[in-house]
Amino acid sequence: MKTSMKSETANTKRMTTIDAAGVTIGRVATQAAVALMGKDEPTFERHIMTGGKVTIVNASKLKIDPRKLDTVKYAQYSGYPGGLRYETLAQVLEKKGVEEVLRRAVYGMLPGNKLRPEIMKNLTVTE
What we know:
The chain is α/β, with parallel strands linked by helices. It has one domain (3-64, 97-125): CATH 3.90.1180.10. The protein has helices spanning 25-37, 68-71, 89-95, 98-109, 116-120, and strands spanning 3-6, 15-19, 53-57, 73-77, 84-88, 123-125. The strands form 2 sheets. Strands 1-2-3-6 form a 4-stranded mixed beta sheet, covered by helices on one side. Strands 4-5 form a two-stranded antiparallel sheet. Strand 2, helix 1 and strand 3 (53-57) form a beta-alpha-beta unit. Helix 1 (25-37) crosses helix 4 (98-109). It is globular and about 45 Å long. The chain starts with a strand and ends with a strand. The relative contact order is 0.20. Mean pLDDT is 92; it is low at 7-11.
């Protein structure tokens, strides 16, 4: 897993590129979440966006354990009684692709505050 960071001037955000070839979903997602939050910078503050932009490349070459295709489940609740639906990892991969799986993994690793939607805008996933 290769990570490259370009540090630019103080006014611009830092760009981080993560190569996902041959690496598991969780390892890539944790690196991305740390860089997006800015926890790897000395100026980190939980209530301020200090992280930069993160690009994940070679997402289609991720290493996915075959057992997890059926055991990992994503819940979705409509708000109505009996409205809890589950999707397996295999179903999400088939419908939406590897990009959505990585997005959901990173989303779950970010803090659940008002900054989470803004932080997710700085994530780019490419095949």
